[in-house]
Amino acid sequence: MMKIDDTTALTLPRYKWLANIIGTTISQGLLADNQALPSERELAERYEVSRDTVRKAVRYMEERGIIYSGHGRGTFVAPAIVRGTTRFIDSFSQDASNRGSVPGQRVLNVEPVAASMAIAGLLNVRPGDPLIRVHRIRLMDNVPVGLHDAYFVLPPGAKLTLSQIERAGSLYKLLTEKFGFTPAEAVENLSAGAAEQEDARLLGIQKADPLLICERVTLSDRREPIEYCLMKYLSSYRYKTRIAKRSGD
Amino acid sequence: MMKIDDTTALTLPRYKWLANIIGTTISQGLLADNQALPSERELAERYEVSRDTVRKAVRYMEERGIIYSGHGRGTFVAPAIVRGTTRFIDSFSQDASNRGSVPGQRVLNVEPVAASMAIAGLLNVRPGDPLIRVHRIRLMDNVPVGLHDAYFVLPPGAKLTLSQIERAGSLYKLLTEKFGFTPAEAVENLSAGAAEQEDARLLGIQKADPLLICERVTLSDRREPIEYCLMKYLSSYRYKTRIAKRSGD
DNA sequence: TAGTGGTCTAGACCACTCG
DNA sequence: GAGTGGTCTAGACCACTAG
Questions:
Q1: Is B240 in Cβ contact with A187 (below 8 Å)?
Q2: Which chain B residues are closer than 8 Å to A236 by Cβ?
Q3: pTM for this one?
């Protein structure tokens, strides 16, 4: 046991290392949809890990919609329609890439604001407490597709300028590096709505045109709410997601 | 070891049994949001299971958004805002219950139809192949909130009548029992749209009013597509979901 | 430094599927 | 009946967190 692994990541856990190998094989198209993988016992032998480690890798990939398994039948490559539909917190940039488009943004405004009652309640602060608001137009291939109006709880004295955000590709990455912003989980609430005058102007549509409205509260690794974001998307925008299992298991 | 467990489920795996115990404690409000649970080692001792079994229970509940854990810190009760936001395939009835409303339906039509090109592609059948269409108005507390237009791939000769569906509470349950319909996973695509004349009439709104549009493909345990469903919801309807982690892990 | 969760192992037996 | 994934154990060591 414990042969040094030739290729990648000496600091990566073995199960993720295995998952990467298998995942790469699949994404390269070397395995057909619904094709069976080698059995867990065989993979364990082939890669010189315990069967439990193989199972961890399998679970890891199952959660991501890459493979699936059936009791007594085997483990299989998930069909293309479900692959890549797992949602993550940095979904906008991900979505764009998955579609082969270039994500972008135009920052309208960055300002300190006092928390409203509605937002204070969601972010566990008092009404009037200081927040930072970032108002942006989201672009795909340089075309506006939506509006993001985000409110952040940041450490006192935190300063954020328009040019900083524009320089950084990802707002989340910037906040993570500059402050201890570590999003771990989010709750979203989707609905349909009609464009207000202002929305219509910014997005280049008519007033009362339908919009996909998504409200999100983002939580830190300690489950403190750290962001509220109101997003409005054109009707051409598609929000893809995957649902696993039934509630009764 | 192996003390017979006093209460529930002698056929249930031990980790689900443990998860149920802990989950019940939480849902009864006996533990505060973000309160720490006993350590894994302590739970293992207390419930006379191995630590690995405790960890399985913890993972099981983490996936469902009931608890979360931090390396070196402990395991904690997820705050109320995230609990119960995990989406499952039978989401409509679940959603309604979670809100304290009574889910309902009015079946408009049940009929065999020939697959269109668009739907055939999604369901892996040939255009013209037989499908069964179920067109329904969805109700919450007897008030219309949306339209479901579902197309099923069922075994040849499968017959479905309007009265059967109306008698059965859940369409999925009926299909599962009568035919081998076993949904395991689904892919959804959400967007905003404007109500057509017919939508408006059925839902009691104006033409061009905004609607939340959700397309869904449901897959069996073998990942064969077995249902396509086009759903349209009033703007008052809320689609709740939870997103775990970031894409880079 | 003590305590926590995270990773890993080697082996056992059960439950299910399919030829 | 042979082969698959699912559950469970007992023990080891590592990585991280916090007082």
A1: yes
A2: 191
A3: 0.92
